[in-house]
TrEMBL record:
It holds the Pfam family Usp. The lineage of its organism: Archaea, Methanobacteriati, Methanobacteriota, Stenosarchaea group, Methanomicrobia. PANTHER family: STRESS RESPONSE PROTEIN NHAX (PTHR46268), UNIVERSAL STRESS PROTEIN MJ0577 (PTHR46268:SF26). Belongs to the universal stress protein A family. Residues 1-133, 155-282 form the UspA domain. It comes from Candidatus Methanocrinis natronophilus. This is Universal stress protein.
């Protein structure tokens, strides 16, 4: 499913950790390592990237060896950029290399511990059009070590659904992924004029989730489901913690999505504010950054 993967790297501890995850992703054969080099002075109008380009290529070669040791084919790209947004370079390289998935750390160099998502990751999330895996790590005592989820990333996957067409598309992709051991299907009842109305929606959701559960079990995947009531984003983040999942995998869009929006509000908030790795599966009907 994700044969060719792009991994943007800034050589930080966080991005280095991502490399440890890539080999464990189901179906990955080729990795494109990308480092975007900008001028040290953001106001510079003339810039010779020669020395920094040489340094970047040396570091990329070192990271490539780690991936090649996992049996992966690796392509290395160091891209100078005088001005513009890094995410646009990530997008253009993704298109050129024909990648299926972008994998990146939620944070990069100089991350602030109380920030949930770095600026580059946030822009790739908001404006990119490739499937995106945002890796997160628990910061262990002292703040020097990062505990990885990635070694068991497909062990237990939370799959939110609102039963929309884009959501069904994502569910089918997840069901076809190799290496998933357990799935928790999740639906949030987000509105209701009365308790009876909420109860009716809950009953309807239960019937649909039971049918989806049966489909997953036919595919050989251990499956359970649960239903929340309240804010879809908040409930999804809370369910991911309560279930102690290794990954949240969800559609970029849900019911009533506007085609020109590259990501829906629920997916954006879960990816931005959650504490677990998030796989955002782009809807085939969503727009593309210009």
């Amino acid at each position: 499913m994700f044969e060719t993967v792009l991994v943007p790297t800034d050589f930080s501890k966080y991005s280095q950790k991502v490399l440890e995850c890539v080999g464990g992703l189901p179906g990955v054969k080729k990795v494109v390592l990308l480092n975007v080099i900008g001028p040290a002075d953001p106001l510079a109008r003339v810039w010779d990237p020669g020395a920094r380009l040489k340094e970047a290529k040396k570091k990329l070669a070192g990271q490539a060896k780690l991936l090649e040791a996992q049996g992966l084919q690796v392509s290395q790209r160091a891209e100078p950029m005088l001005e513009g947004d890094i995410f646009r370079k990530i997008q253009s390289v993704s298109d050129e290399e024909g990648v299926n998935l972008v994998v990146m750390g939620a944070r990069g160099k100089g991350f602030v511990q109380n920030l949930f998502l770095g600026n580059v990751a946030k822009n790739v999330l908001r404006y990119g059009d490739k499937h995106l895996l945002l890796m997160r790590y628990k910061i262990l005592e002292g703040g020097d070590n990062l505990e990885e989820y990635c070694s068991l990333i497909t062990t237990k996957v939370l799959c939110p659904t609102d039963f929309s067409e884009p959501s069904d598309e994502a569910i089918n992709l997840i069901k076809g992924m190799k290496g998933i051991h357990e799935v928790v299907l999740f639906h949030v009842v987000s509105s209701g004029e009365s308790q009876d109305h909420i109860d009716a929606k809950t009953k309807e959701a239960t019937e649909k989730l039971n049918a989806m559960k049966a489909d997953f079990e036919k595919a050989g995947i251990k499956t359970a489901f649960r239903i929340g009531v309240g804010s879809p984003a908040d409930e999804t983040i809370a369910a991911a913690e309560d279930e102690d999942v290794s990954l949240v995998a969800m559609s970029s869009h849900g019911k009533g999505f506007v085609k020109h929006l590259l990501i829906g509000s629920v997916a954006y908030e879960v990816a931005k504010n959650g504490t677990r790795p998030v796989l955002v599966l782009r809807s085939s009907k969503a727009g593309k950054a210009s």
